[in-house]
Write a structure and sequence with these properties.
Elements (H helix, E strand, L loop, with lengths): L11 E6 L10 E6 H8 L4 E3 L2 E4 L4 E2 H10 L8 E3 L12 E3 L1
Antiparallel strand pairs: 1-2, 3-4, 4-5, 6-7
Amino acid sequence: MFNINREDVILMKEIELSKKGKKNKGKYKALVDDDVFEEVNKYGWTYCQEYAYNSKMRIYLHIYIWKLKNGEIPEGLEIEHIDRDKLNCQISNLRLA
């Protein structure tokens, strides 16, 4: 049996993505942390080249979440998905590279 401390559990939710020109909203989903879900779910996100993208704000979901949690990205660095799943936008899966 495992002992799991409630504070160690990171809750996550899914954001439904649309795909340009297709009627398949909900087919693609991005994972986000529970504490940013309400903020990011206010906006429409599109599945675009394996990423979640918002064309009105011209920003990718992983970058938007990084900036919400950590501020601006230092010049010359990018945000990388640790597990290489570009729809897993949980902060624990993002790092500077």
